[in-house]
Design goal:
280 residues; alpha+beta; 21% helix
Length: 280
């Protein structure tokens, strides 16, 4: 019986050849692997940025007309969130159900029913708002506490009117009761009344994008440091920018949002545009 093996020289040759192959093959394999991980990182950054931008866009589309504002550094965005909208009664039906703008009024009806708000009392930062025109119009700015919105001291109850304007429909309209009675600044051209949920802010600060709400209505827009006390939406933020054109009666406003995320040497920038319908 013969025993077979290998010599020390053969072993050294195998080690030498294996080393040469490793040196030659490693860079070839390394690049596709690195490219795969880089692509994965970019995809994760894009997903994070897209989710954040879509969240901001969804909120902004539900904003009170002319409530969008951007800070001077363009790193903070604020607007008033809307829960529901309807048209208040100005003519027809029972005269007592029409909203008066010439004096304080304790109750009025809307045409039909609110879509999202059933019945009950407005709570927290919820307000009734009519004809907000923003900072460019003195006396018509919800942030300044102007009479375009009910104050916190006014209790607002919304219930189905027990004496419907249309007898054929048992619950045809919502009746709004204000206690104490309140006088709105002016009637809006389209007779819209909004139920607001309060102000919402987004801002970039110290590598994060944050969302904050529940702080009321402030005359001065909260800065990024204040907004950072809210909820973190995404991190790895190296740059962001908000631009807003309020538009005019012939075209909607345009909100532009840019977000840059960076991680592991990879960086992506996404731009999102949102039309803001400032229908008062």
């Amino acid at each position: 019986m013969k025993h077979r093996g290998f010599t020390l020289l053969e072993l050294l040759l195998v080690i030498l050849i294996t080393g040469i192959l490793a040196v030659v093959v490693a860079p070839i394999i390394q690049e596709p692997i690195r490219a795969y991980f880089d692509q994965t990182t970019r995809a994760e950054l894009v997903d994070s940025a897209e989710m954040a931008l879509r969240r901001m866009a969804r909120d902004a589309r539900r904003s009170l007309p002319y409530s969008v504002r951007v800070n001077g550094a363009q790193t903070a965005l604020e607007f008033v969130s809307v829960a529901d909208v309807a048209r208040y009664r100005t003519n027809g039906g029972n005269p007592a159900s029409r909203l008066s703008f010439n004096t304080t009024d304790g109750s009025f009806n809307i045409l039909g029913l609110f879509s999202n708000f059933g019945s009950g009392t407005l709570a927290g930062d919820q307000r009734l708002a009519i004809f907000n025109l923003g900072a460019g119009s003195a006396g018509f700015n919800i942030y300044n506490g102007d009479a375009v919105a009910t104050p916190a001291s006014t209790v607002v109850d919304i219930d189905v009117d027990p004496t419907p304007q249309n007898p054929a429909i048992a619950s045809s309209e919502h009746k709004v009761t204000l206690n104490p009675a309140f006088q709105f600044q002016a009637s809006s051209p389209s007779h819209r009344v909004y139920i607001t949920n309060g102000a919402v802010s987004y801002a970039c600060f110290n590598g994060g994008l944050f969302r904050d709400t529940g702080y009321g209505y402030l005359a001065t827009q909260p800065g990024p440091a204040a907004v950072a006390g809210g909820t973190l939406l995404t991190d790895n933020v190296t740059a962001c920018q908000f631009d807003y054109d309020p538009g005019n009666s012939g075209r909607p406003g345009l909100l532009m949002m840019s977000l840059t995320l960076t991680r592991g040497g990879e960086s992506i920038t996404l731009l999102h545009q949102v039309h803001i319908h400032n229908a008062t």
